[in-house]
Amino acid sequence: MAENTSVLSVKFTERKDHTEMTAIAEAAALIRRVAGYRKPDESLKAVFLRVARKLSSRLPKYIGPMKPGRVEDIWREEARMIRSEEMDALRALAAEHKATEEAARDEFKALERRIEAIERTLGLSPAHVAGARHLAMVGALGDLDRALDGGAR
Predict the structure, then answer these.
(1) Which of 7, 79, 107, 138 has the most CB atoms around it within 10 Å of its CB?
(2) Packing angle, helices 44-56 and 68-75, rounded to 10
(3) Buried b (16+ CB within 10 A) or exposed e, 8-26
């Protein structure tokens, strides 16, 4: 009987029409979205501090600043509750972050179109472009190779 219950509960969570999410789970997802990618030398503690600073600027004065420990509790879904002001600030910050990402993506696509137009104007064939990219990569890898093997080539 216990096996049937666990299988049923797993299937229940995998259903496509089941879209309910608790406030804590939504807040954790929003914090992860706002945090973005970590820099290679950035600790998780630094990420919590960065997100806490961003959120603190959006919270009302009577709530006070968001502490990194509170961000960590929400991140790990260990917070007992989420205040409506915190959720509003998280949603606004996530929407702003999404808009910034979309603007950067659009700018990148526009830049790619401009580069393609310049390549067509100059009459560069795809082979020329691929060759130039290959030479640039070889040059970058050559510098890396020198750093690794003490400069011998």
Answers:
(1) 79
(2) 110
(3) eeeeeeeeeeeeeeeebee
Give the predicted TM-score (pTM) of the model.
0.61
Q: Scanning the structure block, which residue is given the tokens 């795809």?
A: 126
Residue 130 is inside which H or E element, if any?
helix 126-149
Distance from C-alpha of 51 to C-alpha of 67, rounded to nearest angstrom: 9
Tell me the per-residue pLDDT of 58-94, one tens digit each, with 9 for 90 and over: 998 998 899 999 999 999 999 889 999 999 999 999 9
Q: CA-CA distance, 3 to 23, in Å (whole number)?
A: 30
Measured from the Cβ of residue 124, the count of other Cβ atoms closer than 10 Å reads: 15
97-133 tens-digit pLDDT: 999 999 999 999 999 999 888 888 887 766 666 666 6
Are 94 and 30 in contact by the 8 Å Cβ rule? The answer is yes
